[in-house]
C-alpha cells in the first residue's frame, strides 16, 4: 500500500466507505476492459459513495488502483531462515495459492494494460511486485552465501524460472497438487544427468561463454 | 493455421487481399481492446476490401483471428536430434527472439481476453500453442529415453519452468543477452549443491511425497 496517499479518518463510517471503495475498484478492475474501463464515477456508483469521498482519500485513479491492488495481495510468508529449500517452497506455495483468490484477475488486467498505462504499470512493478521479488532474491542470495546454492548462480535467471513457472498461467488455469514443491525440487537438483551425447556443448559454466 | 478454413483462389489479386486482411487483423488485435475491439467491419475498412471478401474466405471472426495468429508465429526450429541441451537451447532462443517480432502483442491480447472469449482461447491453445509445446515435450521425453535427463523427470514441471521463464515477461521487456542459454543450463544442472542445512527436507525424489 502507498500508505501516505491513504488517510484513515479513524471513524467506522469512513472505514466502511474505504472498504466499499476498494472493493468496487477491484470488482471493476477484474472486468474485461481492465484499467481503461475503470473511472472514479463508476467506483463511486458501485461503492455507493460520492466522488468527493474518493477524491478526499486518493489523489488520483492510479493511487486508488495501487492501494486496491496492495489490499488484494496477502503478504508473502516471512522466510524462516532455515534451509533455502524450505523457504523457497513456502514462497512458491504462497504464490500458487494466491491464484485461487478472488481478485487475481485484477493483476492480470493491470499487466495486460501496461502499454496504454505505463505510469501505473511502473508504479505497480515498483511498489507491489518488486518488494515481493526482493524477498525471493534474498533467499537465493543467502543460499549462495551458505553454500546451499552454486557459487556461480545467476540469481535473476533462477528467479525467472521459479516465478515464471508459478505465474505464467492464466488465473483460472490450475496447477496440479504439489506443483510448488516440484518446481523448487527441480530447480535445486536440475533435470540433467551426467550422461552426455556427442554434439553436446558440455556443461561449462555459463560464465565461460 | 487452420488451413481447411482458408481457401486461396490462386489469383495474385486474391492473395494480396488475403495478406491485407491478415495484416489488418493483426494491427487491430495489437491495439488495447484486443479481441473485443476487432470486428469484420474494422478489418475490411483497414484492409481496403469489402466485408464479403473476408466472409468468402473465413467463416467467422474467430477463424480469421486464428489464421492471423498462425501467420504471425514463425515455426519453431526442428530439433536436430543431437543433444537435448542443443535442442532445448535452439527452441529457447527461438522463443526469446520471437518476443521482438512486430505482432507479439497480439498473443498477449488473446490470452488476456480469454475469459470473455473462451472458445477462441481454447482453439488458440489447441491449434497454435499446443503443437509448439509438443515439440519441447518430445525433446524432454527423448532426453529421458537417452539417459541425458533424469529418469524420474516430471516433464510438465520442467516445461513450466523452461517456458515460464521465457514467456512470462511482457513483450516490450527484454531479456539480457544469453538468457535462453542460461535458462537451459540452469534447468539441466540445477541451482543446488550437495550442502544442506539443518531443517532441510532433503532431496528425496518428488515421487516420494
UniProtKB/TrEMBL annotation, chains A, B:
Pfam families: TetR_C_11 (PF16859), TetR_N (PF00440). Residues 39-58 bind DNA. PROSITE patterns: HTH_TETR_1, HTH_TETR_2. The keyword Lipoprotein does not apply. The keyword Transport does not apply. Gene3D superfamilies: Homeodomain-like (1.10.10.60), Tetracycline Repressor, domain 2 (1.10.357.10). Residues 15-76 form the HTH tetR-type domain. InterPro entries: DNA-bd_HTH_TetR-type_CS, Homeodomain-like_sf, HTH-type_TetR-like_transc_reg, HTH_TetR, Tet_transcr_reg_TetR-rel_C_sf, TetR_C. Keywords: DNA-binding, Transcription, Transcription regulation. This is TetR/AcrR family transcriptional regulator. It comes from Actinomadura chokoriensis. The lineage of its organism: Bacteria, Bacillati, Actinomycetota, Actinomycetes, Streptosporangiales.
Amino acid at each position: 500500500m502507498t500508505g501516505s496517499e491513504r488517510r484513515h479518518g479513524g471513524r467506522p463510517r469512513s472505514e466502511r466507505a474505504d472498504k466499499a471503495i476498494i472493493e468496487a475498484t477491484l470488482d471493476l478492475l477484474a472486468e474485461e476492459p481492465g484499467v481503461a474501463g475503470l473511472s472514479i464515477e463508476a467506483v463511486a456508483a458501485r461503492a455507493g459513495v460520492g466522488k468527493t469521498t474518493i477524491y478526499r482519500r486518493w489523489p488520483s485513479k492510479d493511487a486508488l488502483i495501487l492501494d486496491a491492488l496492495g489490499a488484494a495481495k496477502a503478504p508473502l510468508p516471512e522466510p524462516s531462515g532455515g534451509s533455502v529449500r524450505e523457504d523457497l517452497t513456502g514462497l512458491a506455495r504462497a504464490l500458487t495459492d494466491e491464484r485461487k483468490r478472488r481478485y487475481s484477475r485484477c493483476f492480470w488486467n493491470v499487466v495486460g494494460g501496461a502499454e496504454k498505462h505505463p505510469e501505473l504499470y511502473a508504479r505497480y512493478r515498483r511498489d507491489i511486485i518488486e518488494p515481493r521479488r526482493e524477498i525471493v532474491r534474498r533467499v537465493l542470495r543467502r543460499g549462495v552465501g551458505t553454500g546451499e546454492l552454486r557459487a556461480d548462480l545467476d540469481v535473476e535467471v533462477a528467479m525467472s524460472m521459479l516465478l515464471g513457472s508459478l505465474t505464467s498461467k492464466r488465473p483460472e488455469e490450475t496447477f496440479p497438487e504439489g506443483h510448488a514443491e516440484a518446481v523448487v525440487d527441480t530447480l535445486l537438483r536440475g533435470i540433467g544427468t551426467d550422461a552426455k551425447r556427442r554434439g553436446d556443448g558440455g556443461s561449462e559454466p555459463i560464465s565461460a561463454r
